Amino acid sequence: MNRVSVVLIEDHHLTRVGIKAALEDCEEIKFIAEASNGLQGITILEKTLPDVAIIDLGLPGLVDGIELTKRFKEYVQTRQLDSSINQPKVLILTSQDQEESILAAFAAGADSYCMKDLKFEKLLEAILETHRGANWIDPSIARIVLSRLNNPFKEVVGSSVIPTVSIHGLKPEDNELLQSNPLTRRENEIIELIVEGYGNEEIAEQLFISMGTVKTHVRNILNKLACDDRTQAAVRALRAGLVN
C-alpha cells in the first residue's frame, strides 16, 4: 500500500508534537517533516512536495498560513508536475472559523479545511480524502463554503488576483438517488440538527424521541445519502440544498 506523505506546519509545540506522534502511528501515513513557522514551512514544502501539507492559519511572522498556502500552490504550478500523479494538496487545520479566514484560505488554494477540535480519526479521514482529490470541509464551517456553490470567489491582493476555487454540488447520480428515495420530514429535521453539530443525545432531547429512534433515523439518512458517517452526510445535505 502506498502511504500518504505528510508535512505538518504548526507553531504550537504541544499540538505539533501530538499530531506528529499520532500520524506516525498510522500505517496509511508517511510523516516526512515538520515546521513551526511559514518561512521554514515553504522551504520544507518546496523541497519535499508532500502528498498533503497540513497548515495552521495562525503562523507567526510575515508568512502566515494563508500566505504559505498561496506560495506553495504557486510553486507547485510552476513545477508542472506529471499529471498522472496526485498533485500536492493543502489541508488547513486551525481554530479560526471566521468567514473571512475560511474564504481567504480556499481562495489561496487550500483543498480542505478542518477545525482543531475534531477527533484524530476525522483528521485522518480528512487527510486521506484530501489526498484522493476531495474537498473535505468541517461541518461546523460547511455552510460558509457551500454558500459559494455556483458562485466561485476571488481575492484581490494588491494587483494580484488569487485563482478562483469551485466547490461543486452533488453529482447527477447523487441527485437521482435523493429524488428516488427522499428524506422523510423527521429525517430532514434530524439532518438539520446534525449540520448544526448536535449529537444523538441532544437530538433526542430536542425532538422528544428515544436514542434508539434517533440512531435508526441517522442510519436511514446515511443510507439515503450514500454516506459513511455524519460528517459526509452534513456536507452532502448542504450541497443538495436539504438544509438552508
Write the layout of secondary structure elements.
Elements (H helix, E strand, L loop, with lengths): L3 E6 L3 H12 L4 E7 L2 H11 L3 E4 L9 H15 L9 E6 L4 H10 L3 E4 L4 H12 L7 H8 L6 E5 L2 E6 L6 H9 L4 H11 L4 H8 L3 H15 L4 H10 L5
Parallel strand pairs: 1-2, 1-3, 3-4, 4-5
Antiparallel strand pairs: 6-7
Helix pairs in contact: 2-3, 3-4, 6-11, 8-10, 8-11, 9-10, 10-11
Give your account of this protein's structure.
The protein is of the alpha/beta class and 244 residues long. 50% of the residues lie in helices and 16% in strands. The chain contains eleven helices and seven strands. The chain has a five-stranded parallel beta sheet with strand order 2-1-3-4-5, with helices on both faces. Strand 4, helix 4 (99-108) and strand 5 form a beta-alpha-beta unit. The chain is elongated and about 55 Å long. 34% of the residues are buried.
Name the descriptors.
244 residues, 50% helix, alpha/beta, two-stranded antiparallel sheet, single chain
Count of helical segments?
11
The major beta sheet can be summarized as: 5 strands, parallel
β-sheet strand percentage: 15-25%
**What oligomeric assembly is this protein in?**
single chain
Extract low-pLDDT stretches: 149-168
In short:
The protein is 50% helix and 16% strand.
